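Deliverable D4.2, example record:
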Amino acid sequence: MTASTIKLNTTTEDHHIARMAAVALGLTILENAIPSPLPGVKPGLANIVTLIVLSRYGWRVAAWVSLLRVVAGSLLFGNFLTPGFFIGLSGAVCSLALLALSQHLPRRWFGPVTHSILAAFAHITGQMLVVYLWLIPHAGIAYLIPIFATTALLFGTVNGLIAARFMEETSTPSIPQLDKLPDNIPR
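Output generated by the structure prediction step:
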């Protein structure tokens, strides 16, 4: 059997997830170009995409986008299966778990900004747990908690505001619109 006879059957949703993961990966690349005063202190720009996807398409699609971004980013930056990969993965998993729970909170009080702040705190909590339980089992890392908590609050708020603003300015989901594109435009 030759490679030309193998066909992977994909759906419109698969294509959409891949596009959103690619946008998140692009933001991850941009974020890695920004100098960081401390290791682990990053704005989490890709989380804006995760919040938008969560709001529009649900938790399952948001989880795919987030996890694809983590794996693809680690492959791109050459840190797949390194401690940095597991630290990032633990943050993403904790963040996704909290987002799954926070979806059931009253929408009247809990929107994209609140979800973003909660996810940022869960992310840093997951990362700190892996660092403490695996890499640096010393109580001294607790001195970093105020710095990481402050940045999680700051970046969580900013990312949530950006996601909320983007969701206000754009139309409803674009999945149905993908079918309306002319055949000569790549999908």
